[in-house]
Amino acid sequence: MVMLKCGKSAKGSLLKTGKGGYRPPTIKLLGKSIRYNDPVKYLGVTISAQCKMEKHAQSTGTKASCLFDRLTVICKARWGITCSNIRTLYNGVYLPSVLYAIEAWNPLLRQETARKMSSSQRSPLLRMSKGYATVSTDARQVICGAMPLDLEAHKRYYRSQIKSNTAFTFGLIQYNEGDDKKQAYTRLDSELLNMWQAKWHASTKGDTTYEYFPDVKIRMQKQWMELDYFSTQFLTGHGDFGLRLKKFGIKEDDRCECGQSETAEHVLRDCDLYEQERNVALRELSLEGVTTGVRNTQELTKTKKIFDIFKKLCKGILTKKEESRRR
Questions:
Q1: Torsion sign, CA atoms 283, 289, 292, 298
Q2: Helices (H) and strands (E) in the chain — how many of each?
Q3: 99, 152 Cβ separation under 8 angstroms
């Protein structure tokens, strides 16, 4: 039995049950009956029977996403505030809202709760990436450099434990009272990135994104990366490409105007229709020390200057495709 009280008055009761079901008991406090509730909301935290947090994760995620959407209403795929500004709102508004009181409920996190939390990330990351809505959450997290929400929750919780000098064990980390806090923060961050890397490596989605960013640690070092509507289509493979549009049911034929199957890779590397734009990019890339042209996807995100060249090429190709359709 969990009793939630505020001062001298009880806010409600929540019965912890097993698999066999339950019959809510009659509870009185100071002669007054206490109504049984499931879930119970106390100080902004929603707790369900068996101390489950799925409903809390779902409700706070929905509210945080709605608030974030209102703040980013001027952000559209092709115009509006930049990716870096959206990231600032994400870190300053969305995360504090959805992870409110995480120090209290993080120990109750379960796999189902983690799935609910990841689902609530889709809308904010869609706006940040400026990509297609069909891109998987796993891929969006990586291209945006946004840690999965359950790992972000662990990060905030265990950082608070270190700050308060409370011993804990998490993954491969064993923190004891009196340990060096600066080193502990570093080890925690490294362990979280290792966990994220394991999830990303095991994911069955985001194959194209994985070609560009196989290592989440390297992606997180590139905080200068400014995504846009055009580059994100190539980074994810979800965009104005015949094969992808055929899968969406938008086109009946997946062929490019040149006659080949139209994928992001074909358009970027091989299609003769965009040879002029590609040659300009190749010359600029060679000046930056890139000798593999556009074949080595990881090279295209190596530095800000190289990535800006890649972005310009992506925009040139997709803009030319649109102009060709208008004729």
A1: negative
A2: 16, 8
A3: yes
